[in-house]
Amino acid sequence: MILISTIQSIATEEKAILVGAYLSQRHQTQEQYEQSLQELEQLADTAGARVLQVFTQNRDGYDSSTLVGKGKLEEITLYVEENEIDVVIFNSELSPKQKRNIEKIVPCKVIDRTELILDIFALRARTHEGKLQVELAQLQYLLPRLTGKGTEMSRLGGGIGTRGPGETKIEVDRRKIRDQVTKISKDLEQIKKQRQIERNLRIKNNVPVIALVGYTNVGKSSLFNLLYKQLNPASAKDEVLVENKLFATLDTTVRLIELEPKISTLMVDTVGFIQDLPHNLVAAFRSTLEEVLYADVLLHVVDVSDPHHNDKIETVEKVLTDLGVTDPRIIYVYNKIDIRSNYSEDYELVVTENSVQVSVLHQNGIDQLRALILQYIFQDYSQNTLSIPYHRSDIYAAAHEIGKVLSKQEDEHGWIMAIFARKSANEGFIKKHMNSIEILERENHEFTV
Ligand SMILES: Nc1nc2c(ncn2[C@@H]2O[C@H](COP(=O)(O)OP(=O)(O)OP(=O)(O)O)[C@@H](O)[C@H]2O)c(=O)[nH]1
Ligand SMILES: [Mg+2]
């Protein structure tokens, strides 16, 4: 646990500068590069730093020992000294060697993009599981970087050519970290099992799952809160955090929402994605994001006031593919149309039948969105009305198991029940009890948008 403190973090109001290298050879346009620097600034701001200057260099390739060239580093060093900078943040991930070399030259704290994101995640994790996931990612980031500290320690130990105390300490540290990684992984596995049990229960209860996914800061949690507030007014106080910062949401929240009277769905709010999300974090958050794998419908929320939203859609879809989401049923929720007009001449919005334009802030387009969600869900669900004779209380009981009983009446023949369930369950039930029950109505929901 002590080891965690070796991950560098940012204190509030620390003075920062950003450093990036634009590689013309790489598959990235100048515009995308500038966009990623802007995003780095937002990340730094989220972590509490104040960015005073951005240093950037065009290169053919990264310098293997210091990422940017020596001349650039001297320029940076001068600026750091003159302006009493606390932290230098590099836009790409530094190799352990690069980081060590830069730290020798620049007289302040040096961190890279990955460390910055890990720092923000550590700040924001709330639940036990979230904290474990971040700790796991941090430890995995640290493991290959222990060598740096070791060199210093063995230098302190002083023995040239001997196995100094520092090296021994590294071995101890490594082992401790590995033990800790194993322990956390086991704990997470346990939590995952628990979630699997809950998920099985849900499937058994035939509750459709709707997951909100998207880039960070696009308005997923705002939409989650709005739907929850509109449809479950009694419990409106229970809101999730919304902030104009990156990664406001880290922990997955699942809520029961009635999209239609008596038709319950589970809505899942998830962590936002970002370009170059550290691999360790993707791996660590995999189990939380598994909810996404099992969702009936994904709401991919997009901030269309952002001129780069198409790149961000691509990033999100790439992460979804990495997570193993294949052939998802997606509704694109084009959000923030209220501020879109500022940019609208610059780019076109691709409007398809699986997209809807909304402003969560002004509550525009929400009814259309709801109708579209219902339409998607009812591709899998159906509603049948059956008559079950009184002497078959076994079938009456079984009907409650397959889905949700929307209404129940009695007449001279038996119970009349309207059952909402996954199509397969509804059809299976009818097939099994064909000879004993009567079908009064067998239909799919039709919703018009
Ligand atoms: N103008 C405008 N702002 C919006 C709209 N919807 C959300 N926002 C703002 O966008 C910011 C981010 O909203 P969140 O709901 O926290 O976004 P998120 O996607 O959950 O973000 P992360 O949890 O960080 O991934 C907040 O400042 C919201 O008030 C909208 O329709 N119009
Ligand atoms: Mg959120």
TrEMBL record:
Transmembrane segments: none annotated. GO terms for cellular component: cytoplasm. Its cofactor is Mg(2+). Pfam families: GTP-bdg_M (PF16360), GTP-bdg_N (PF13167), MMR_HSR1 (PF01926). Residues 208-381 form the Hflx-type G domain. It comes from the Bacteria. Mg(2+) binds at residues 221, 249. GTP binds at residues 214-221, 247-251, 269-272, 335-338, 359-361. PROSITE patterns: G_HFLX (PS51705). GO terms for molecular function: GTP binding; GTPase activity; metal ion binding; ribosome binding. SUPFAM superfamilies: P-loop containing nucleoside triphosphate hydrolases (SSF52540). Residues 23-50 form a coiled coil. Monomer. Associates with the 50S ribosomal subunit. This is GTPase HflX. It comes from Desulfuribacillus stibiiarsenatis.
